[in-house]
Amino acid sequence: MTDAMAAAEKDTVWMGKALDLARHGIGLCSPNPVVGCVILDRQGEVAGEGWHEYDRLDHAEVVAIRAAGDRAKGGTAYVTLEPCNHTGRTGPCTQALITAGVARVVAATRDPNPLVAGTGLERLRQAGIAVEVGVCQAEAQRLNEGFARWIVSKRPTVEMKVAITLDGRIGPPPGKQAARQPYWITGEASRAAVQVMRWEADAVLTGVDTVIADDPMMTDRSGRPRRRQLQRVILDSALRMPLDAKLVTTAQDDVVLFTVSKDEARVQELIRRGVRVKVLTADSGRVPLGRVLDMLGADGIQTLLTETGTRLNTALLAAGLVDRLKVFCSPQIMGSDAVPAFRGLSMPVMLDAAEVERHGNDYSVSALLRDPWASAPKH
Q1: Rounded CA gap, 274 and 230, in Å?
Q2: Total-model pTM
Q3: Residue tagged active-site, from 9, 49, 53, 61
């Protein structure tokens, strides 16, 4: 192995450690990105580590520098996102690294924030610090897909979750499901994985048809720590939301319903029961999906998980609004009379670079349909 190959392998190993640290911030960083940092001293030993949590203010680099102390001087900092070069709630991390005297900074990816977007790396170079960028970039960008979409477009990244049978069905034939009771397509392992997806999200969205059929709670029951309350979002064009639905009876400023109905009495009754109601102008008689994303983004929602039925699954895909699709598949066949996952798509949806996982007796397929980083500034 050449010296260059050995150095590249070392960078990959330590960036992997920084990525592991960054994951400690999932659920605790939004609306900021998740970031991890490892600082090695001159001898290549770990001097300091850190990750970012929003409520603790300090960014990962500052936490690691504080832990490293004087050992940071002449050392190497591995950071999963380009250090910031502006003053927000805290000072610029570039200046903290410069003051600490590190000799080299390895960043996994540029920051998609237009306020940074390469200027942090350039500031470090101007200070005489050696800079490398791109180590474990794909993994680092995966961690911050929500932040990348939101910081550029002010819309959340949309991840669609669908649970299907082998023949693409999401529910039994009409009349075969008990009223307002969920019909589980997948097993417990898959359902536990969905709870982790909710934990990673800022909001979860469903349609009133699903509420009427299943009466879901739509809560995060992962048991993992989160900073922001999961927002539960319902699309209900005609205000058919049952007033005794679990989503209504458990609302604690965490349920928002979008409608185009002008039924003011119904709106006020839902508000009285703790539901936030947004009345929008109809788009072909329906709630305008793009406007919903705009309003959620304005509320700081960066990651939106959708758990919807046939019509909304199809509408979101047809409108090109889904960034990532994750399909959980159960080894069963329901037949053509059962409810399909999609109906009436005019074009096929191709899944490139699909990731496949096992969940007990089920499996899942996940793929990126739109790259949230594609519109981020390159310089």
Answers
A1: 15
A2: 0.93
A3: 61
